Amino acid sequence: MAGFGTPRPPRAIDVSRRSVLQGAVAVGVLGYGGRADVMPSAAIAVEQVSQVSKPMTPYIGTAVSRIDGHAKVTGAAKYAAEYNVPGLVHAFVVTSTVAKGRIAAFDAGEALKVKGVIDVLTHKNRPSMADNDKAYKDDVAPEGSPFRPLFDDKIKFNGQPIAVVLADEWEIARFAASLVRVDYEEEAHVTDLYRQREAAFALPEPAKPRGDAAKAFAAAAMRHQGEYYVPIEHHNPMELFASTVIWDGDGKLTIYDKTQGVQNVHRYVCSVFDMKPDDVRIMSPYVGGAFGSGLRPQYQVVLAVLAARALQRSVRLVLTRQQMYALGYRPGMIQRIDLGAKADGTLDSIAHDAITVTSQYEDFHRHETTWSGLLYKSANAKYMHKLARLDLPTSCDMRGPSATTGVYALESAMDELAVVLKLDPLELRLRCYSDRDQNNGEVPFSSKNLRECYRQGAEAFGWNKRNPEPRSMRDGSELVGWGMATGIWEALQVPIAVRVMLTANGHAEVASATSDIGTGTYTIMAQVAAEMLGLPLDNVSIKLGDSSLPQSPLEGGSWIAASVSNGIVTTCNAIREELLGLAKKVPNSPLANASPDQVALVDGKLTSRQDASRAISIADLMRHGAVDRITREETTSFANDGNHAHNTHSALFAEVKVDEQLGVIRVTRIVSAVAAGRILNTKTAHSQVMGGVVWGIGTALLEETLIDHKFGRIMNANIAEYHVPVNADVHDIKVIFVDEPDNTINPLGVKGLGEIGLVGVAAAIANAVYHATGKRVRDLPITLDKLQS
Ligand code: MOS
Fold first, then answer.
1. For the residues 11-24, what does the mean pLDDT come to?
2. Exposed, middle or buried, 387 (CB in 10 Å: 0-12/13-18/19+)?
């Protein structure tokens, strides 16, 4: 477990229904009441009630279009800030303009005079909220003391929320917020990683060292040492962070929130406000991207609930794009890599150190360094990770956390070692190929078809036509560079509960409190259920993003597709068994002697696998059994026997063209060959990986959060000046999925794809830039000015 590790169990608030998820590693243990919907539910409606007659199609592994696509492109899909009720109050946040100190005084007098303003909440007049750290620890909170918005007069970072203006209209709230006067007592702050470098403190060893890396490095025939810098980056999802809190009367709340985990937010709100689980329901049926920024509950939900409780009214709070830059970020970091090798290109030693950024109050970190000794074979390996405290919000997960950055450094260093060795960079990777997880007892991988990624990727790219000499390839006035890199991510799985209701007329509703953060979860859930139940896809509806549904961990770490798809298999198996029980009671039943694994649901019928003529329709079975529906809820957990490592892999090949006079870099071609077990949906999977590659172009060439250290303030807190790739930056992207059967990891052999698409891309591009120009840039992003000196 190099990146996320196993998520830790959340706190129990109410253990009365603990049995819902037994033996769980990463589960909620809350029970939820069955309050009636007050707003449209998260279900994707199935309009027509058709009989099952169409021929059966296998759905798993096909290119089914998103079942929520129509709702999204027509605007029918509603996001957290789009739920309206009469009398809705609009909230606007006032943020700190200093990075550290305390609030000496507020003057809200002018703001309160504005017509339409209802109130201004500060730490002085807000309703009560919990006063201990534990209450603010969400399921994925790091060590430390979580941030509490509007709790007291302390300022911990620039952009910190310090007051909330409540008004009849959003524009009025925004205007009045500009009138709130604040006096600060400022203290000296530091926001520059390089200034805190020496003060960084060491974390416990990220993984057990092996051999003696320093000695082996000193004795190595060939060596490379390098220091690599990655700046702070921000997530910038399309949807703004927002919460609409519906006051249901009697203190009960329905909260539409932008989040990757409705039940995480549910537990958090209940504990911060000491509310009963049945009195709070969190809804997030659609999420306009989050990329890790929605894993932890964000402060807007706290402020919106505070306001709703203060006024006993419904409240909406939407953050501005600028305010979202104070929510969390990919930690900036300095990495050092030492590689020692034999002249033949096999590695003797790997040492990987990282210093990453966190806040003054929490110790967020992942394991940047341990990917190195996992990915490549080396008898000697050593890792060190330090944290540097800055007066910023706590850093957090961002797509492929730790691997995106750690593998960037590793794969840049491997490219540099290949230059030292005068060896083709792909050949170097093959010579260092590891069939075992050396960080964890040398266990084999449940499956690892990285070799085939290298082979198919290189072939599709035309890698064998590469002239190894830098600056040797040209296209008119442009230098052409070809670079490659490897990607790796974890194939994690989490315990999950899934409820399926099958009706006599051949419809199914599948429910779990997971999220679809834009990855295609709705669609793969419907595919798996349709195939398992032998129904047309249109006859399956999906409910998710509702805290009252069966328990699911948040959507992150690329673990939901594998978890929920196998969870659906478990529950559908239970349904099939129940149908078989009914079948056995039918007089002269053709399935009288069949066992559960001898029957399948095909085309609306329970059918013998051996003899398709032995079949009874679902409708007939339910009629005989005098039921109109069967509902089952089952929990699936994934035992790890410790005998296998579970990872996904990729091989990246990049072509850049660099204008020799101007230094302008274009990424003209990328081939990404991915091995990620069984692919549930070739279309959504392709989109995931393509999106990752596009993001990788940003990581390599564009993305960077710039801080004015004098004020400790982000200077480019907007998507005009925080650069991300646009259409003109994206050219030819080819995605290949190599075959990777996995009979060990889970019944479907699924691994998950949300993050692997990004890992390795930045290094492949950086290596291509070196090959084009002969200039090695070791700090991201590679902007044209860095090519000049
Ligand atoms: Mo992902 S960084 O777990 O949303």
1. 31
2. buried
171 belongs to the catalytic site? no
The identity of residue 646, as a single letter, is: H
- What is the best residue among 235, 284, 291 to mutate for testing ligand 1's pocket, by most ligand atoms within 8 Å of CB? 291
Give 89's Cβ-side CA count (13 Å radius). 27
User: Which residue among 258, 295, 688 has the greatest number of ligand 1 atoms within 8 angstroms of its CB, and so is best to mutate?
Assistant: 295
* Alpha-carbon distance values, 649 to 482, 491, 755 (Å): 20, 10, 11
Catalytic residue among 233, 703, 740, 755: 755
Give per-residue pLDDT as tens, 80-89. 999 999 999 9
CA angle 637, 639, 641 (to 5 degrees): 175
| pLDDT tens readout for residues 110-138 | 999 999 999 999 999 999 999 999 999 99
| CA pair distance 480, 656, nearest whole angstrom | 6
Q: How many CA atoms lie within 13 A of 39 on its CB side?
A: 24
Residue with tokens 């995480």: 264
Nearest to 648 by CA among 756, 727, 733, 503: 756
State how far the Cα of 506 lies from the Cα of 448, in Å rounded to an integer: 39
Instruction: HSE, CB side, 13 Å, CA atoms: give it for residue 333.
Output: 32
Half-sphere exposure of 171 (CA within 13 A, CB side): 0
User: What angle do helix axes 299-311 and 262-272 make, rounded to 10 degrees?
Assistant: 50
Q: How buried is 230 (Cβ within 10 angstroms: 0-12 exposed, 13-18 middle, 19+ buried)?
A: buried
CA-wise closest residue to 246 among 134, 78, 122, 471 = 78
* Pocket lined around ligand 1, Cβ cut-off 6 Å: 260, 291-292, 295, 397-399, 401, 556-557
Q: How many angstroms separate the CA atoms of 464 and 467, rounded?
A: 8
Which ligand 1 atom is at minimum distance from the Cα of 294?
Answer: 4
Peptide linkage before 587 cis (omega within 30 of 0): no
How far, rounded to the nearest angstrom, does the alpha carbon of residue 288 sit from its chain's CA centroid? 13
**Residue 187, Cα to own-chain centre: how many angstroms?**
35
Distance CA 228, CA 416 (A): 12
| Residue 28: band (very low, low, confident or very high) from pLDDT cuts 50, 70, 90 | very low
Q: Looking at ligand 1, which atom is closest to the CA of residue 293?
A: 4
Please tell me the chain's helix, strand, coil percentages from 3-state DSSP, rounded to the nearest 5: 25, 25, 50
Contact between 150 and 161 (Cβ < 8 Å):
yes
Summarised one tens digit per residue, pLDDT across range 683-692 is 999 999 999 9
User: Which residues pair with residue 333 across a beta bridge?
Assistant: 230, 356
Q: Which helix (H) or strand (E) holds 254?
A: strand 253-257
* Residue 388: φ, ψ to 5°: -110, 125
Letter string b/e over residues 693-724, b meaning 16 or more CB atoms within 10 A of that residue's CB: bbbbbbbbbbbbbebeeeebbbebbeeeebbb
Q: Mark residue 749 as left, alpha or beta (left: phi above 0; alpha: psi -120 to 50; beta: remaining).
A: left
**Of all protein residues, whose CA lies closest to atom 3 belonging to ligand 1?**
556
Q: Which two tokens stand for residue 720?
A: 């005009």
Q: List all residues 6 or more positions away from 668 whose beta carbon is below 8 Å from its beta carbon.
A: 655, 656, 657, 731, 732
How far apart (Å, rounded) are the C-alpha atoms in residues 454 and 254? 50
Measured between alpha carbons, how far is 519 from 522 in angstroms, rounded to an integer? 9
CA 337 from centre of chain = 27
* Structure confidence at residue 2 as a pLDDT band (50, 70, 90): very low
DSSP 558-585: T-HHHHHHHHHHHHHHHHHHHHHHHHHH
Tell me how far the alpha carbon of residue 5 is from its chain's centroid: 14
Give 779's DSSP letter: B
Nearest-atom number in ligand 1 for the CA of 400 is 2
